[in-house]
Design brief:
- With 184 residues, the protein is mainly α.
- The protein has helices at 26-37, 40-50, 59-65, 73-87, 114-132, 148-158, 161-183.
- The longest helix has 23 residues, at 161-183.
- The protein starts with 25 loop residues before the first helix and ends with a helix.
Length: 184
């Protein structure tokens, strides 16, 4: 008779179980999901620009910015990268934030160092807050290459990104508290 093995998602490379981490509070799960979608509206707007939608730009403004050919690579890359980074917030409330899946190179199947995760997430939250908070002044700045309706639209599409840093910070504090409780 054999003993049951731990599931692949929680087994470490040494075959030992990682320490049990308390479940995240409901508010942290909700905040992580909200943070994961904060970059989505602006990313979809950029993808629309690449596909030929003027997205609030005047004809002259749209052609001046240039979203065709190789110039279309940066908005697509930026959109994919920002959404991928936003989705990483979910790792702070999911088991793969403690033990990544085996298929992830170099990290898979081994417990992560919670201090490093907290440091990276804290730096990310601070950087995002510094980056996006000035965007609250979007409507106070003139944008001559945009129509008035486009100016309003773009402001509302980028506004959720302002919440990304504070949401990530809150979820990071929850992650830190849960993992600190295990070490105590």
């Amino acid at each position: 008779m054999t003993t049951p093995q731990p599931t692949t998602a929680t087994r470490t490379t040494a075959g030992t179980e990682p320490p049990a981490v308390p479940a995240p509070p409901r508010w942290a799960v909700r905040a992580a999901h909200a943070a994961a979608v904060t970059a989505l509206p602006a990313g979809l707007w950029r993808l629309g620009l690449v596909l030929g939608w003027h997205g609030g730009y005047t004809d002259a403004g749209y052609h001046a910015v240039g979203f065709t050919g190789w110039d279309a690579v940066w908005p697509v890359t930026l959109s994919v990268l920002t959404e991928a980074l936003a989705l990483l917030t979910l790792g702070l409330v999911r088991p793969w934030g403690t033990v990544p899946p085996r298929w992830i190179p170099f990290l898979g199947g081994r417990p992560v160092n919670p201090r490093r995760v907290v440091l990276a997430a804290s730096l990310g939250a601070a950087g995002l807050t510094v980056l996006w908070t000035p965007f609250l002044a979007w409507w106070a700045v003139s944008h001559p290459n945009m129509t008035p309706q486009g100016h309003l639209l773009v402001g509302f599409l980028y506004l959720p990104a302002v919440a990304w840093g504070p949401l990530l910070a809150a979820v990071t504090v929850s992650y830190h508290r849960r993992h600190r409780a295990v070490g105590a």
